[in-house]
């Protein structure tokens, strides 16, 4: 289930984002979170399985497109199709089709391919 990010969940968001290759550095993580907290076009969503927040999606909403910048799943929950579920749920909720960033291009293509 998708859950919108709240600033009180900053540490959880940073933990999940840190699983992304380019988000390992604490200073980079802080800047990334600040971007989502201060720019109204940038949104974070958690994925909840039962009571646990196990994934995170980060998007940028422009007039013409919505770009997926971040997608991460807790390693304990990988290989279960959660990334695809997260993407499909977000696209359904926002009634959009996500465009990948350089970092999410391969993963998003893989998810879309599995869903066809």
Overview of this structure, please?
The protein has a five-stranded mixed β-sheet, with helices on both faces. It contains four helices and five strands; from the N terminus they run βααβββαβα. With 116 residues, the protein is α+β, with helices and mostly antiparallel strands. It has helices at 10-17, 26-38, 82-94, 105-115, and strands at 2-4, 42-49, 52-61, 66-73, 98-100. The chain has a single domain, classed as Aminopeptidase (3-Layer(aba) Sandwich). Helix 1 (10-17) crosses helix 2 (26-38).
Chart the SSEs and their pairings.
Blueprint: E1 2-4, H1 10-17, H2 26-38, E2 42-49, E3 52-61, E4 66-73, H3 82-94, E5 98-100, H4 105-115
Parallel strand pairs: 4-5
Antiparallel strand pairs: 1-2, 2-3, 3-4
Helix pairs in contact: 1-2
């Amino acid at each position: 289930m998708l859950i919108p990010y709240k600033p009180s969940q900053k540490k959880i968001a940073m933990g999940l984002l840190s699983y992304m290759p380019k988000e390992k550095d604490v200073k980079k993580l802080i800047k990334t979170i600040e971007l989502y907290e201060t720019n109204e076009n940038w949104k974070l969503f958690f994925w909840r399985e039962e009571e646990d927040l196990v994934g995170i999606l980060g998007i940028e909403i422009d007039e013409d497109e919505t770009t997926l910048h971040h997608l991460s799943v807790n390693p304990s929950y990988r290989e279960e199709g959660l990334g695809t579920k997260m993407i499909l749920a977000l696209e359904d909720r926002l009634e959009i089709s996500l465009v990948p960033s350089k970092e999410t291009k391969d993963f998003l293509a893989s998810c879309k391919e599995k869903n066809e």
